[in-house]
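General statements about sequence and structure are easier to judge against a single worked case. In the encoding step, the backbone of a single protein was reduced to a row of integers, each denoting a local shape. The record that follows shows the chain in one-letter code together with its fold in token form.
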Amino acid sequence: MRWDDPDLRWAYALLDNLPVPYVPTRRESLSLVFEALQLREGDVFADLGCGDGRVVAEAARRYPLSRALCVEARFDLVEKARETVEEAGVGDRVLVVRGDFFSVPLRGVTAVYMYLLTSINEALKPKLSRELPEGARVATLDFPVPGWRPVKTLGDPGWQRRVYLYVIGVSDR
């Protein structure tokens, strides 16, 4: 059985009612995100709540990532993300997964991007600390991770203009 099986769309409709609205990351914000993450050869990048796939596609296009993971709950956005990574020519290195980012395993991921709400960031803290290796970088746009100390904050206050960078083993202790 596949995540994109059309016979299961009725079940996936339940996932479409998650408490995080779809707000795409502006292309102008990508440089700030990538500056914070300092993506490098061999990194495994994950975008949690990847929407239309624009961030993960651009990361895989610009940087020599080992591979990338795009996790999205909404069926329509998963389809769009798959189109986006194929059009960017990086479909061989990007896995687009339809699912709940609380359930998708992140072991081995070395860099994470999240544009989620503060409450969701807080709820993800135990999973990120448990599954990501020490030294993994986590960048959040606009919304900090409560209780974690950012190692760097880039940009200015304002919509999609501030990135918080966290490092597992440093920020979460």
About this structure: Helices lie at 9-12, 30-37, 54-62, 75-87, 118-131. The radius of gyration is 15 Å. The chain has a mean pLDDT of 90.
